[in-house]
Amino acid sequence: MYVAGVDAGSTTTKAVVLDENSHLVGKSLRATGANVTRASELAYEECLHASGIREREVSYVIGTGYGRYKIAFGDTQVTEISCHAKGAHFLFPKTRTLVDIGGQDTKAIKVSDKGEVLDFCMNDKCAAGTGRFLENAATVLDLELDDIGPVSLRSENPLRITNVCTVFVESEIISHLARGQVVEDILRGVHSAIGARTIALVRRVGIEPEVTFTGGVSRNVGMVRTLEERFGVPINVSDLSQYMGCLGAGLFALERAQGASPRRVKRVEAGGS
Amino acid sequence: MELKHKDAGKVVQRELMASYYGDLEDGEGPVAYLFVPGNVVEILRPFGFRTVYPEINALQCGIKRVAGENILKAEDMGYSADVCGYVKNDVGICLAGGSTPLGRIPKPDLLVCNFSGCNTFIKWFEALADLYDAPMFLLDVPYLRDEASYQQDIEYVTQQLWDLVAYCEDMTGTTFDEAKLRETLEYSRQAEDLWTQLLSRARLRPSPFDAYFEAVFFMAPINVLRGTTDCIDYYKVVIEEMEERSRAHVGPVPQEKFRVVYEGPPCWPHFRAFWELFKAWGVVGVASTYSKVGGLFETGIRHDPARPMESIAEYVINCYTNWNLKKRSELLQQYIEEFEADALIIHSVKSCRSFSVGQADFREVFSHELGIPTLMIESDLADPRYFSQAQLKNRVDAFFESLEHQRIVRGS
Amino acid sequence: MQQTDHLSSVRELAQDVSFSAVARWKEETGGKAIGHFPVFAPQEIIRAAGMLPVGVMGAWGLLEVDYADSRVQSFVCSVARTTLELGLTGRLKELDGMVFTDICDVARNLSGVWKRNFPEMLVEYLHLPQNVTSAASVVYLERELERFKGKLEDLSGVKVGEDSLWEGIEVYNHQRELLQRIYRIRRESPWLLPADEAYLLGRAAAQMPVEDHVSLLERSIAEIEARTVKSRDNIRVLLLGPFCEQPPLELLRIVEESGCYVVDDELLQTYRWYTSAVPTNGNPLRSLAESYIERARLSSVRYQVRRRREAIVEWLKEARAEGVLFCSAKFCEPALYDYVLYKEALEAESVPYLHLEFEEKMSAFETVRMQVETFVESILFA
Q: I need a surface site. Which of B51, C38, C41, C67 has the fewest CB within 10 A?
């Protein structure tokens, strides 16, 4: 028996197929583009192909991510927060705190020993402390986003960036540059500012080891280092980080396929009435 | 010329505040928390209360640069980035078991919520009541609306003051000593006379002191020690110091170039840097509204032993932020005229909506209707994170550059 | 189908930011209209003076803010901003007056801004007692209401008689009773009446004479009670927040679509202030003043002696709610302070809760949906 999880995210759509022993059979990833429904279909097809199985062999599919209701072939939907918790628990079973930093938002999730969401917290609409903050800093400094993490690690005299606003930080960086500060030190300061903001959010759900870090920003080594320093514990980062959501969805699908049903029924579909 | 009284106000105040905080740490007697604007300390002193002013603690923590840490503690507990930094600083102190660089702040036995001009004060003490599990007496202070409502407001507050007396008698088991109240009120009155006299010296050219950046420092005793002889003596010392400065033609800047009126609280966590922005241009504050949050004594408001409760009620209602915007705006205009100011500086702070909302209308009134050069800048009074030095410097420089240019053009 | 038409006309009226119904009423009756900011308004007195109370509570996210941004700093809530925008763009020109009460620092100062910008209007600020234990409070409030009545009399040139005050009290008592019936439906069979519809029915009061609103509620209640809708196994929640700033309808809809039933809330406070009927004997203003002190609902912006943590736990039990959605408007200080008190209380009782931040004009509904769904999942999968 096989199950699948599909994560229709805002930039990329991911899919995984698992077997009845929760083993990862295949995975796929593609840009979401303008048509979420089409992207999820294609991602799913590619995943089936990579897994070497046919669609009718899959007993249950769960969709997650912001486009979860656009996944026409899915049996049901679960939010990415629940799925991330489940996925993180699968990859790092001792995960109790999960930090997810994406381009637009940051999430802190408290996870139970069974991978359930105990509490969660998101940043407010302000982009301070998210990946966007790093992107702006990279733009002002005329660097590639992927380079700023490694560059920041070369800092010898980290600066203190006081501003947390993504808009104001630009003028602060410019004034540091005008004063002749080196890029490495400024960047370390920027990472540190996000670290402070992140830890403030995570403290709201409580910090309990082990800590697992996911989301696009988890690929930034500077950020991983900063968070490890701030949290005072090593942090789990997986190569499968991007698949965390659909892995969780797949695991939920497996539970459903094996007969577990939640206490209650499906909710109304988005946009419907 | 050698100044005999140089920094006398600073030195004496340091001693007074050290002894005040020392008494909070080791002294005896029940502890009441109250707010600076419209505080009713004269009623509490006869009962032997030691009084804590959380705003003063917040201000001091700001200057001593620990407000940031305190604020983070409160935010960890769930307080939003968008609420008043003073409140969060105070919650932070509570979470730290009262420990501050000023000394250990004792827990309250009573919270007297005199919320003159600030509804956030109610939410603040509601939070403390919960955190400390302490009783709260809410002294309802109506906002100053118009002449038609003034009398009913005075009567309402007066009756509540008697309620407070009864509450304190009950709580402490002591009978209210009216003679002691009169004596306390007399001390308050004398200090208020001297404080008013001191501030009026900013009329001189050059002004011997900065009526914003220095006045907000000189105001500590009138806010914390009112009703004591120490408070009276303090202002005598500062007046002497200022007299001497005047004789020596010494002021807060080497050469007074611009005289301005300040509206709004200062930025405590970056106090020096904030002041420097103006000092660099030879700017002297000749009047400020923030130094009046503890009472608008220059309007003739006084504590009065001959009319104890009524005079307290008048005082409570007439604190700057409890005045309606029209009266606030008229007061600013009066300051500009009386103190011969060249400009109005509005410092809008996120933490205090009570001060800030309506300030943009002041800007309209002064710059468009009255033709007074007006600068409006933003940061915060408590939260070090809302201070963008580069941006502020740009605005301040541009403003005074243009004032200077106008002067040259006009040939004055 | 008929029901949908009915609702859409209610919606059209409630969301009319040009206030044309007010203009029509004035033309038909020759009366004056008095606007009021949310949370509390002395509607009984306004009506007794022959005037129309008009709820001005922001602009449903329908306005592009052009003027108010230069008057209201970035750290101030939307409802202050968009209400001012309504005024500055001439949409409130039909109002002869505007009343504010002491709900927060922003609203208080907004009254002063209003006075300066709209000198042709009667702008009143009422200080309502925050001290609810002093014997002086009722006396004080009675005088404050008397003062307000005097201002209306000056405006109309006509004395307000006791009879018309009693009439006002009675009709508003009736309106509140009907609203309580709406809320009883939500508590007992929430599947019959979605939260956004219930809110619209109440909010319609802002722009119509109370008698018309009473008949709207009567008709609607009959129709709702006759509905046959299957119940879903949703989670019963309390929707808390001061709601001076009004939530987008979409937010209310998403909360229920995501698997919750809102069985009670803090919406429409102006129309639900008194928890039981204002007594109709003695002196009318005294009766209103006493009721303000003794029959007031739990509110973020009025001090009450009882600790909030106790009040909230009791409310949860009463409403048989399983969780709490706490909604705060961006930058709303009273809400954000209460949130911490509620949070502590709910954690102590192990009641699941979720904090959502909203704005009058918001677009991040997908984030809201995800958060509410996760909240529901965390209860379901536990």
A: C67
Given pLDDT bands bounded at 50, 70 and 90, which one contains residue B136? very high
**DSSP strand pairing (C122-126 vs C97-101):** parallel
Q: Which residue of C has its CA nearest to A64?
A: C370
Average pLDDT over residues A101-123: 89
- pLDDT value at residue A130: 77
Q: Are residues B169 and B243 in the same domain?
A: no
Asked if residue B251 and residue B328 are part of one domain, the reply reads: yes
B385 contacts A203? CB cut-off 8 A: no
Is A125 close to C364, i.e. CB distance below 8 A?
A: yes
Give me the CATH number covering residue B93.
Answer: 3.40.50.11890
Domain range for A134: 95-237
- Set of chain A residues whose Cβ sits within 8 Å of the Cβ of C374: 79, 81-82, 117, 120
Contacts of residue C113 in chain B, CB cutoff 8 Å? Answer: 325, 357-358, 361
- Residue C152 φ/ψ, nearest 5 degrees: -70, -40
- What domain count does chain A have? 2
Which range marks the domain in which residue B43 is found? 8-177
B157 plus B304 within the same structural domain: no
pLDDT of B316-348, one tens digit each? Answer: 999 999 999 999 999 999 999 999 999 999 999
Number of H helices, E strands in chain A: 8, 10
Do A131 and A66 share a structural domain? Answer: no
pLDDT tens digits for range B255-284? 999 999 999 999 999 999 999 999 999 999
Q: Is B29 part of the contact surface with chain C (CB cutoff 8 Å)?
A: no
Task: Select from B129, B149, B177 the last residue of a domain.
Answer: B177
Angle between helices C195-203 and C2-14 (to 10 degrees): 50
Per-residue confidence band for B1, with pLDDT thresholds at 50, 70 and 90: low
Same domain for A129 and A77: no
Task: Give partners of A (≥3 CB pairs < 8 A).
Answer: B, C
Residues A133 and A143 in one domain: yes
Do B219 and B316 belong to one domain?
A: yes
Read off the CATH number of the domain in which A233 is found: 3.30.420.40
Query: What architecture (CATH level 2) is domain C17-161?
Result: 3-Layer(aba) Sandwich (3.40)
**Residue A181: other Cβ atoms inside 10 A:** 15
Residue B3 lies in a domain: no
| Whether B156 and B211 share a structural domain | no
Same domain, B203 and B170: no
At A131, the pLDDT band (50, 70, 90 cuts) reads: confident
pLDDT at residue A268 greater than cutoff 70: no
Same domain for A27 and A138, yes or no, is: no
Which pLDDT belongs to residue B3? Answer: 87
Size of interface A-C (CB pairs under 8 A): 65
Which residue in A122, A268, A269 is closest to C371 by CB distance?
A: A122
pLDDT of residue C342: 96
**Contact flag B143-C330 (C-beta cutoff 8 Å):** no
Q: How confident is the model at residue B411 (pLDDT cuts 50, 70, 90)?
A: confident
Considering only CA atoms, which of B62, B298, B324 is closest in space to residue B202? B298
